[in-house]
Amino acid sequence: MTLILCDVGPRDGLQNEPETLAPSVRAELVNKLAAAGLPRIEAVSFVRDDRVPQMAGAEEVVAGIDRRDGIQYAGLVLNEQGFERLRASGLDRVNVTLGATETFNQRNGNASLAEATARVERILVEADRPTTATISVAFGCPFEGQVDPAVVAELAGKLRADELVLADTIGVATPLAVRSLVERVNALEKPVGFHGHNTRNTGYANALAALEGGATVLDASIGGLGGCPYAPRVTGNIATEDLVYLLEGEGVETGVDLEALIDVSRWLEGMLGRTLEGQVYRAGAPIVSA
Which residues are designated catalytic? Predict the structure, then answer.
């Protein structure tokens, strides 16, 4: 099994920050993550600058990226206009997303579940490069509560994406539920990933459970950046450096330089002017003596 770690910090992480970093700084973050060996980075979101100022200047960010061979640079798009911007930018991978519940789609995208599904499908059909579809609130919704796994699996089966990612958007999942749903969606015979938040301190256990269930993609965010605007108490994504430390300790090779990731988090702490959620960058990599 080849595991792909995708750092979503430059997009999903920074999008939830009160501070807005300049496109040049966001490009520098992407470059630092690439230099640390992350095989995939979600670099930007192609949205309206006035709607999401933290993501303003997506094309400037892309222009500032020093491309490295073997690394996929992805962008999130919410509609056909966003996809056209991504295509013109030359990014390698298209990310689309929709919620598993009716209410979340209404609140997050002003669309019904059926409308959101149709919109995502139009982008997937048009896409001329690899695609990932993320199903948000796959384990629990801030408006509707627990989500039926059968509903998520049925929705996943409708999406013609190359890859499916199951997101614990508000951090309510536990390992048994994660493993079970990943195994269920794996039956569709396409790569399955997991996107976890550590709100209730289960994020890292959930990531391991996803691997046990057959996931080949894990999302994480440098320093544990992130959140959910519709669930104010939600903390960030699982931290990339913490996840790398855990995986390497469990014998799962990541190909990522942990010390370099720690340096990125310390640099980002200075950029944002606050302590980040991650633990490993504060504790440092362990010193092992014979």
Answer: 228
